[in-house]
Structure formats: structure tokens, C-alpha cells
């Protein structure tokens, strides 16, 4: 009985690992502008951490100064390790618990210590050579939800195993399925996402501005991007009437803002026939 249980647990763990790898492989695009080709180098041995990728020049295409874009959506955290290790770097925590890291950046779109919600294709910085880097390149990692590095990361459907170097052309930020807008951009300066809920064809976000004491709700589309289609966003401050923005929009619905310091809010949105609304909560933030 114990042997059977153990084998079953091992099999379940193995299947979970395969599913996690498959999910990672299915979601990430190149971290560069549409049509750009660069070498993805999964150096071995000696690359730290093992399994990470160094993106470098391809042919006559120089990578230095290239815009760096999120390979998948999530929340980006901006950091600076100084003159050692990663230098200026960003970690994006994705909705499925996985993470990506982008290091040795020359510039970042937010200051260290700040965060922002990003969609796939959102620019987070530019390629440089900060930290422990001897030449301009982008250090890139894909990490599982348990924090372990994926030693065979997949980008643009191409798996780069340890010891391999592959030239990969970006389809990131090419339009169609990639929304160029982020919740932070739509709501404006001072707002940051504190909650979100997935919809079929998009995601609704709740943001907070501590300086003004305001909430903001916006629904960002991930399907039919760039084409008018039904989408909505709503915000209700407890004791007040619900405010809704709905219509056929190309990229997003909202922003809906309301002063809600020390008050509970109900928020929600829809994309097509997929809709969701919260209970009253986030009382004061």
C-alpha cells in the first residue's frame, strides 16, 4: 500500500512538473520588439544560475540599448543590485505563480522599489551592461512557481536547452493579441494595482492612489485587441450608486475613479459575455 501511494505521489509530481513546464512554454514571447532577432545563449557550464539565457548580438544587429519588453503579463518589480550581480533588474510575477527576470538593464521605466502591472509587450527598460556584466546583453530567467530556474526555457515556442545557442525572432508587441495599455497607464500617475480578476478575453483591475485616496477600475482586453468589442468596468463606493463605463471599445473600459478613503468598494467588469463583480471590500485601500 505504501509503495503504491509513493508511486502515485511521484507520478502526480512528475505530471505537475510537465504541466508547469508546458504552461511556461506556451506563454512567453521574446523580450524584444516585433521582428527583432537576437541570439539566445543558454551557456553551460558556469552560467549563474544554470539555465538562464544571455540574449546577445545576432549578425550585424547590436542589442545594446534595445527596448526590453515583458514576455508575459503580470506585476513587474523594479530593483537595483548596484555594481554587482544583476545590476538594474526587473522581476515579473505572472498570474500562474511563475516568474521571469531581466537583468543588466541600462534604464528602467520605474524607479527601484516601485512596481507596476504589465501586459505582454509592455516595455520595462532597455538593454545595458550594469552589475556583473562585461558587455551589453540581457540576462533572462524563467522560474517555476517554487522558485526553481527552468533550465530549458521556451520563448516564441523555441526551447533552448543548456549548452545551446539559438537565433530567435520576436513576435512580441506585433499587435493583434497584445494590448499596449497597462492599468497604471490608463488610471494615471500615482495609481498602482492592488487586485485583479481574470475574464475570458481580458482582466479587470482595481488600483489605489494613496496620495489622493482614490480607487480606479479598468478592464484591459486580451482578445479582439484593436477592434471595437463589448467591454465594461464598474466601481461602487459603499453608500453610493454604482458607476459603469461600457461600450464597444478597442483596448479597455474605464478608467472609473472614486474617492474611497476608509470606505469599502465593489468593483468588476466584463469582456463580451464573460463578467465578474466583487463583494464590498478593500475598505480604505
TrEMBL record:
Transmembrane segments: none annotated. Keywords: Signal. One of its GO terms (molecular function) is metalloendopeptidase activity. Residues 63-150 form the M23ase beta-sheet core domain. InterPro entries: Cell_wall_metabolism_enzyme, Dup_hybrid_motif, M23ase_b-sheet_dom. SUPFAM superfamilies: Duplicated hybrid motif. Residues 1-25 form the signal peptide. The keyword Signal applies. The keyword Signal applies. It holds the Pfam family Peptidase_M23. PANTHER family: MUREIN HYDROLASE ACTIVATOR ENVC (PTHR21666:SF270), PEPTIDASE-RELATED (PTHR21666). This is M23ase beta-sheet core domain-containing protein. It comes from Microbulbifer rhizosphaerae.
